[in-house]
Amino acid sequence: MRIISLSKVVAAAALVAVPVVVHAQDVRTSPAQTPARLSAAQVFALADAARAKGDFATAEAAYHALESDPDPELRTEARFRLGMMLADDLHRYTDAAIAFRRILDDKPGAARVRLELARVLAMTGDMRAAEREFRAAEAAGLPPQVERMVRFYANALNARKPFGGSFEVALAPDSNINRATRSDTLGTVIGDFTLDKDAQAKSGVGLDLRGQAYWREGLEKGTDLLVRVSGGGSLYRDSAFNDISTGLQIGPQYASGKDRITLAAGPTWRWYGKSLYSLSYGGTANWQHPTGKRSQLRIEGGITHVENKRNALQVADDFTLSASLDRAFSARMGGGVQVYGFREAARDPGYSLASGGASVYVFREVGRTTLIGTAGYSHLEADARLFLYPHRRVEDRYSASLAATLRALHVGAFAPLVRVKWERNRSSIEIYDYKRVSAELGVSSAF
Description:
Layout: E1 3-5, H1 6-15, H2 24-27, E2 37-39, H3 40-52, H4 56-66, H5 72-88, H6 93-106, H7 111-124, H8 127-140, H9 144-155, E3 163-174, E4 185-188, E5 191-194, E6 204-220, E7 223-235, E8 243-256, E9 259-272, E10 275-290, E11 295-308, E12 316-330, E13 333-346, E14 353-366, E15 369-382, E16 394-406, E17 414-427, E18 434-445
Antiparallel strand pairs: 1-2, 3-6, 3-18, 4-5, 6-7, 7-8, 8-9, 9-10, 10-11, 11-12, 12-13, 13-14, 14-15, 15-16, 16-17, 17-18
Helix pairs in contact: 1-4, 3-4, 4-5, 5-6, 6-7, 7-8, 7-9
């Protein structure tokens, strides 16, 4: 029989300042055993009895002590019971997600655990992550009784956390922080001009910040009012290159069967350098529809009016339409593809343009690391030639990135993030032609 030192339970409990008192009737052990050592079964009994009495601190300490057991099955059982207690009794959904994720790192085919992870992710409001876990569970293969559980949880996704958010911060070395040409001259219809150094490509190390917060209010069955505030920016030592934006979106979210429709509208502000660059306001509509047990379709469209504060000729109405399909290939691997179209109708035809493109992504769980690779292509054409330039603006843009989230090094809900990005924009206008390589080294919310 596996034996666990009682001192581990006591030491773990001490971290939460809760004394452990072992009663013979709780652990069913002899007086000779009680003072020194307990079997794993006895520690489970102690933890379960404490949970039943509402003594969650002692139960948590005991489960954590069992996590150090060399038997992987005992560690898994302890983490599962801990996750269930954190979710159902203490409503600490982020901590519960961490416990379930630790199990799946070792046992990716554990369907019940993946479903519980999806459930608690939904309770935190991270619906996209919850849906991804449901697809992964289906890809792993589910027995009929578990499929019924999937349907139950999927129908319960509307019971979501009323507020929440996420945050990411990273150091970002960048070979071209202003996405500018490396040429020191600009060809025009009246000759070549010498470009100011600030208009040429500049390298630097910045601080990238991204975050969002939301609030949800139930209006009636199947309908919520959703309010989102988001922001992000790249900050540099030379503040002339700072790029900051923030936005507010408000609108209803409807659930109809397996489908979900979200409508939202609101303003967005963007600052470049030290002053306001643009003010935008408009709305979007998003439709989500499962196309099978492993895949989901999203279609989104939007209309936005953009007030450019530096050039009145660039005041425009923007129209976007995109479609994406996400699919789980297995319990630890998935991906998706997106196609989109964009139209900007500006006051000056030279600034009016149309573009379209496609992107693909693949994610893979490797141990306790999540790898995500992306690749994209887009084509852009302006309506007319600007007077100053010899050609109409025509561009082909290529991009790729590779990111890794290192969950093994997490602190609470945050884990280290490493991301490398590459861009190449080929343009008929020299000032828009650029190359860029950047990296991000920071932390992000892991769940």
